[in-house]
Amino acid sequence: xxxxxxxxxxxxxxxxxxxxxxxxxxxxxxxxxxxxxxxxxxxxxxxxxxxxxxxxxxxxxxxxxxxxxxxxxxxxxxxxxxxxxxxxxxxxxxxxxxxxxxxxxxxxxxxxxxxxxxxxxxxxxxxxxxxxxxxxxxxxxxxxxxxxxxxxxxxxxxxxxxxxxxxxxxxxxxxxxxxxxxxxxxxxxxxxxxxxxxxxxxxxxxxxxxxxxxx
Length: 215
Prior knowledge:
globular, alpha+beta, single chain, 6-stranded antiparallel beta sheet, 18% helix, 215 residues
């Protein structure tokens, strides 16, 4: 799943080249160079959602193209306010504060049944060039244990992502240190893989089909 060799040669890799082969959770954070590292590590199969097909203010319950859904309270598509928001790709971002709800709501992302999240990356957006907003991406296994986490750096637009070899059953994107408790992100990328049990069933099914064809 990972292109280990291509990741290891980059100078801003988050772990040494010797650690990549055995690392379960690989975090990436920074600018476009970190984003390139993430994409190389994740390999093919990443889906992208820029939220630009949604109307301003629309709740986002699921992303079929990425094979994931959100827990309540649902995030919503929000048009960038060009006067003070540093955009990644306009016109929309995803925001964590639905109308008439509390601030500081995290984003909870779950894969579709039978799948696990193998990679997730996003661009956090802020209201100042130096960045006053920050997000933490935390991956959990099926037992609720933390597989790892990574924070976006303070910047007008900053990338954070991870690749996890065992796959995550849930990802929580929490808001850190924001005075107003509101935060947005854009250009969400997610990769998914079948759960081990699903793979086993597919292998068994393939074997049965092969036997029937021989008969």
